């Protein structure tokens, strides 16, 4: 058990029968009345951020979470199969635990967050940007080299489709933002 004086960003606590991390907190001591702590809590299952106020000195249960490196192997009807980068242990995650499963390619490194006490996976996160190859898009327009205002659809090597600028061609490698599936930049080889 810990109290509100132990709060820090990134701390994982049990709240309303769920696991939350503290995104932001502020101790407030008004001139009149009791002190309190204003917080923003992120639900580890849903990703939803909520505002909550705790009275100063309230006891909370701190939960231990671990970040583990995994490498993507393949997916089938049993789920997405990963191998731990250090112990070589293999696990399968369900699609809903992965933040961008359609951008996973074989050999991709991800970070998985586990609840240490129960050994259950909470979520699996790709890096913010991944480099993928365009397998099909309409041919680029000659002379259009810098405009990003006009976009066209492109199919990636992972079968995902995103919108790219007109100057991107089949065979180009691009950076894709895994948070919103947007085009980042063309990668020079």
In short:
By secondary structure, the protein is mainly β. Helices cover 0% and strands 53% of the residues.
Keywords:
189 residues; mainly beta; SH3 type barrels; OB fold (Dihydrolipoamide Acetyltransferase, E2P); 3 domains; six-stranded antiparallel beta sheet; five-stranded antiparallel beta sheet
Folded structure, characterized:
This protein has strands spanning 2-3, 12-15, 18-28, 36-43, 49-55, 59-62, 65-76, 79-84, 90-93, 109-115, 120-125, 129-137, 151-156, 161-165, 173-177, 182-186. It is an all-beta fold and 189 residues long. The protein folds into 3 domains: 2-62, SH3 type barrels (Roll), CATH 2.30.30.30; 65-125, OB fold (Dihydrolipoamide Acetyltransferase, E2P) (Beta Barrel); 129-186, OB fold (Dihydrolipoamide Acetyltransferase, E2P) (Beta Barrel), CATH 2.40.50. It has a 6-stranded antiparallel beta sheet with strand order 1-6-2-3-4-5, with no helix packed on it. A 5-stranded antiparallel beta sheet has the order 9-8-7-10-11, with no helix packed on it. Strands 14-13-12-15-16 form a 5-stranded antiparallel beta sheet, with no helix packed on it. The model has no long low-confidence stretch (mean pLDDT 89).
